Amino acid sequence: MKKIQMVDLKSQYEKIKTKVDASIQEVLDTTTYINGPKVHEFQKNLEQYLDVKHVIPCANGTDALQIAMMGLGLKPGDEVITADFTFAATVEVIALLQLTPVLVDVNLDDMNISLDAIKKAITPKTKAIVPVHLFGRAANMEAIMQIAKEHNLYVIEDNAQAIGANCTFSDGSKKKAGVIGHVSSTSFFPSKNLGCYGDGGAIFTNDDALAHTIRGIVNHGMYVRYHHDVVGVNSRLDSLQAAVLDAKLPLLNEYNSARRGAASKYNAALGNHKNIITPSFDENGDDHVFHQYTLRIIDADRDALMQHLLDKGIPCAIYYPIPLHSQKAYVDSRYKEEDFPVTNQLVKEVISLPMHTELEDDQIKFITDSVLEFLK
Ligand SMILES: *Cc1c(COP(=O)(O)O)cnc(C)c1O
Predict the structure, then answer these.
(1) How far does residue 65's CA lie from ligand 1's centre (Å)?
(2) Looking at ligand 1, which residue's alpha carbon is closest to its atom 6?
(3) Is 195 in the same domain as 320?
(4) Where does ligand 1 bind, in terms of residues with CB under 6 Å?
(5) Residue 3 located in a structural domain
(6) Which end of the chain, N or C, is less surrounded by CB atoms within 10 Å?
(7) 262 and 320 together in one domain
(8) Do residue 235 and residue 183 come from a single domain?
(9) Residues 197 and 294 both lie in one domain
(10) 1 in a domain, yes or no?
(11) What DSSP string runs through 11-68?
(12) pTM
C-alpha cells in the first residue's frame, strides 16, 4: 500500500506532469511573469467553467475576501454576519477592515451557517452576510439570498473550499457555488480542490460595476495608470501559478468526482456504526465536493481515536478545534455561550480523514478498518 497522505499532491502531479510542465515552460519561455497571457487565459476559462461574468485573480483567498469587502464599500462599524465554525481568514478580514464581525452558529447536519442564527443576528447596522461553503458543501444559498433581499444585505460567498460544487434551487435549476451572492472569493492554496503550486486566489462577481471597482483595488487603486482613485492593495495571481491552474482546471470535475467517490466508500464502511455520523450527501448530485471528509464521533473518545490513527501512520486532523468566538483575537462581550451550541459541540466531535484525488481502495480500507478497530 502506498503511504497515506492527508493530501497527496505528488501522486496527482505525476499524472499531469507533462501538461503542467508544458504550461509552466510557456511562461518561462516568454518571461511574462506578472499579468502575462496565462493569467488572462485562466481567468477566461474559469469564467466559462463557473458561468460567471467576472473572475478577478488575486494573490490568495484571504486577500480575495478582503478585496470583495473593500469593493462593496463596507465602512467601519458595519456589521458582517459569518459562521462561528470556519477557518479564521473569514472573520480576520472583517476585523482588519474595522467592520464588526458578528459570529453565528451553524447547522449540525451540513455544518454550514444557520439560517435561524442569521435572522436572529440581523440589526439595523448589518450590511453583509458571509456564508462559507464548508468542507466543500454548498450552503443553502437560495434561502440566504432571500434573507439578504428582505433585509437589503450583501452576500459574500467564501468559496475557498467548494469550487465546482453546485447549489440546487427549489425549481430544480443549478448554479455553481460562488456565483450566487453579490461577490465571492476563492483560494487556490495547494490543498484546495483547485490548487496551484504556491499561493493564489480569485474574486467572482456578475456585477460589472463591482468588477471594475475590484480590478482597480487589486492594483493599488489604479483605473488609469498612475492615477490612484481609491486606496487599494497589491494582490496578483502570478503567471506561473496561473499556468498550473489553467492546466488543472479541465480536470476539476474529474477531481471532484474522485473526492465524492472516496467519500462514498468511506460512508459505506463507516455509516452504520453507532459512534459515527458520516457526512450525508446526494451520491448522484454535486452539492458536495469534499474538500474535507469530516466525521462526527459521538459517545466515544475522539482525541484517542485520532491518536490511534496517527500511531498507525494515518494522517488526520481536527478542523476546527476552537470556535472562532472563543479565539483570543475575536472574543466579544456580546457573545453568549448559549448562542453557539452546535459549534461548541462540533469542535469536540469532528475528525477529518485523508481526502484527495488519489486515494486508493486499499488505503481507504486500511483507514476505515483502523477507525472501526478503535471504536469496536
Ligand atoms: C483556505 C481558506 C481561506 C484562505 O485562503 P488562503 O488562500 O490561504 O488565503 C479562506 N477561507 C476559507 C474557508 C478557507 O478554507
Answers:
(1) 9
(2) 61
(3) no
(4) 60-62, 86-87, 89-90, 132, 158, 160-161, 187, 189, 199, 201
(5) no
(6) C
(7) yes
(8) yes
(9) no
(10) no
(11) HHHHHHHHHHHHHHHHHHHHT--SS-HHHHHHHHHHHHHHT-SEEEEES-HHHHHHHH
(12) 0.97
Query: What would you measure as the largest C-alpha separation in the chain, in angstroms?
Result: 67
How far apart are the C-alpha atoms of 176 and 333, rounded to whole Å?
37
226 falls in which pLDDT band (50, 70, 90)? very high
> What atom of ligand 1 comes closest to residue 65's alpha carbon?
10
The amino acid present at 226, given as its one-letter code, is: Y
Mean pLDDT, rounded, for 46-63:
98
pLDDT of residue 283: 81
What's 326's domain CATH number? 3.90.1150.10
> Is 4 domain-assigned?
no
Closest C-alpha residue for ligand 1 atom 5: 61
Cell of 344: 461548541
Residue 68 alpha carbon to ligand 1 centre in Å? 14
- Number of structural domains the chain divides into: 2
pLDDT for res 152: 98
Whether 214 and 303 map to the same domain: the answer is: no
Atom of ligand 1 nearest to the CA of 132: 13
- Measured in Å, residue 201 CA sits from the centre of ligand 1 at 9
The single-letter DSSP state of residue 326 is G
Any domain includes 295 = yes
The ligand 1 atom nearest the CA atom of 291: 15
Residues 186, 335 within the same domain = no
- Domain end, chosen from 210, 227, 250, is at 250
Residues 6+ apart with CB under 8 A from 171: none
Q: Which atom of ligand 1 is nearest to the CA of 189?
A: 7
Q: Read off the pLDDT band of 282 (50, 70, 90).
A: confident
Q: Tell me how far the alpha carbon of residue 226 lies from the centroid of ligand 1, in angstroms.
A: 31
Q: How far is the CA of 83 from the centre of ligand 1 (A)?
A: 14
Average confidence (pLDDT) over 133-152:
98
Residues 43 and 123 in one domain: yes
Query: C-alpha cell of 134?
Result: 464548508
Q: How far apart (Å, rounded) are the C-alpha atoms in residues 185 and 179?
A: 10
